[in-house]
Design goal:
Rossmann fold; Helicase, Ruva Protein, domain 3; two-stranded parallel ribbon; single chain; about 325 residues; Zinc Finger, Delta Prime, domain 3; alpha/beta; 16 helices; five-stranded parallel β-sheet
Length: about 325
């Protein structure tokens, strides 16, 4: 196994815009910024692991080349939430001229939606005042948490979750370079749970490969700490048929063998419920409502096993007629 095994997310991070996975329209815009050496302030928003930070770093790399370290400042707003950072560190970087033949620097502010309201107001003025010497790339999961005056100063790019096909091809590329055997069932389970998050996908794959050079269904499930989708579906169907004692036995097996928390299991039940063809839509609505009630109680600190048994009891008492 390679000595850099534990940094796969960085080892296989694209360095150039053309290598960013998916997002063809966004890549076209970024490439035009490189060609013209001009760009507005940018706001990248979307789910985690969809390539927002990677795209920003690729843009900076192609713009600055050897001067990237001098012309790029990357901050994480989760660590630097206060107004003082905006007034001091950000302002000092933004006010100085760039090195090289690009007329501006770039400041990447990751997780910008975690900035306090006061900090965002200070940032708004800084962005306006130092536009000639610095461009800002704000990155966040929720654009709604960024104040309107900042949004109006930025070109907004929304990063959608990656498709299963894109993730699959990227994982196969990594497995080939790392001499890892990626079994079809292991790949299927990974794709089932990651929901378009490439970073999480790579982390799961490298963790699953620590036990050997094969990424199997069993190794993936151990890593992510969730139960097999088929076992969860079987639990739902057993309860739906009115077999409370059998369903309770299956539930305890899942809790004890996999060590799953109640919240994780009820959310997995909710996910698998929607994919069950044996249960009609009206019955799914009823079970989903029960899932929501149990999830709320577990979030408030109720006992895992008692609430999950209550879930099974309610589903059993519905008296559903399966297709």
């Amino acid at each position: 196994m390679d000595e850099n095994f534990f940094v796969w997310t960085e080892k296989y991070r694209p360095r150039f815009i053309k290598d960013v996975v998916n997002h063809d329209e966004i890549k076209a815009h970024l490439s035009s910024f490189v060609e013209t050496r001009q760009m507005p302030h940018l706001l990248f928003c979307g789910k985690p692991g969809t390539g927002k930070t990677t795209a920003a770093l690729c843009l900076a790399n192609e713009l600055f080349g050897e001067y990237m370290d001098q012309n790029l400042l990357e901050l994480n707003a989760s660590d630097t939430r206060g107004i003082d950072v905006i007034r001091n560190q950000v302002k000092e970087f933004a006010r100085t001229k760039s090195m090289g033949n690009v007329p501006f620097k770039i400041l990447i502010l990751d997780e910008a939606d975690n900035l306090t309201s006061d900090a965002q107001q200070a940032l708004r003025r800084t962005m306006e005042k130092y536009t000639r010497t610095c461009r800002f790339i704000l990155i966040g999961n929720y654009s709604s948490k960024i104040i309107e005056p900042i949004q109006s100063r930025c070109a907004i790019f929304r990063f959608m979750p990656l498709s299963d096909e894109d993730i699959e091809s990227y994982l196969k590329m990594i497995s080939k370079k790392e001499s890892i055997k990626l079994e079809p069932k292991g790949l299927k389970v990974i794709l089932h749970f990651v929901e378009g998050d490439l970073r999480r996908t790579i982390n799961i794959m490298q963790a699953a490969a620590t036990a050997g050079e094969t990424v199997s269904e069993e190794s993936v499930l151990r890593v992510i700490g969730l139960a097999s989708p088929e076992e969860v579906k079987d639990l739902i169907l057993t309860a739906s048929k009115g077999n409370f004692l059998d369903a309770r036995k299956r539930l305890r097996t899942l809790l004890n063998e996999y060590g799953i928390s109640g919240i994780d299991l009820i959310r997995q039940i909710h996910k698998e419920l929607l994919e069950l063809e044996e249960i009609d839509d009206i019955s799914k609505v009823k079970i989903a409502e029960i899932c929501g009630e149990v999830d709320f109680r577990l979030t408030e600190g109720a006992n895992d096993e008692i609430q999950l048994l209550a879930f099974i009891a309610k589903v059993t008492s519905l008296g559903l007629k399966l297709d």
